[in-house]
Amino acid sequence: MLAIRTRRRKAVVLATATVLAGLSSPSLTASPATATTTAHTDYDSTYYKAAIGKTGASLKAALHTIVSDQTKLSYSAVWDALKATDEDPADSGNVILLYSGLSRSKSLNGGDTGDWNREHVWAKSHGDFGTATGPGTDLHHLRPEDVQVNGVRGNKDFDDGGSAVSGGGGSLTDSDSFEPRDAVKGDVARMIFYMAVRYEGGDGFADLEVNGQVGNGSAPYIGKLSVLKTWNDEDPPDAFEEHRNQVVYDDYQHNRNPFIDHPEWVESIW
């Protein structure tokens, strides 16, 4: 298995590096790379072997077992990990901020105005897991974001509509929901679906689920399911998102977000 992973890692890294080498800094309205609707089957005969051919609840259960085999990070270790997973392909000294789309110095991580911090895309109060090792430190839903924009998102559910977020790169918000910029709507959806598969009530953590509403508060739910499914369809994985998934798998947690490799599995499960 290790030999297979090593060979595949070299092949994927070389291919991804070629794509990323041609990218410029992400704009506020465009995705960092050309989106693709093609499912990636590189790991179907190995990593996803137990899930192939399944649908619905059986697929969700199989994926839960697969992705639960992971290396867990401490919350402090997340800082350095994000500097690698979200590195700006055009400037190795910077990270790309998720909602803002801006490129900001890796050294500006912290809690002050102008800094970036660790955004929990699945808001940590939705399930009350805080920053505990596990869901609170899972890189598949933690991303760099401007401190103030992160504060505006807070623990709101995801939905369409609202007023422009200052410095949010086109993101919108209202009293009970947040809409990220177009270029990362699919990224956000796939992170949410990953969390709903990975955390099913074991390990002392809540059973995280996606539902059809907003205003979920502290319940272990996030919505809005129909909108997140649309975002997954309209903004398929791009080279930046795929590269990030590979870095998390190779260098940190050694598990993958299956919905980046197979976006079509969202419709099969939900």
UniProtKB/TrEMBL annotation:
GO molecular function annotation: endonuclease activity
Region (Disordered): 150-180
UniProt keyword annotations, A-Z: Endonuclease, Hydrolase, Nuclease, Signal
Coiled-coil region: none
Signal peptide: 1-30
Pfam families: Endonuclease_1 (PF04231)
Protein name: Endonuclease
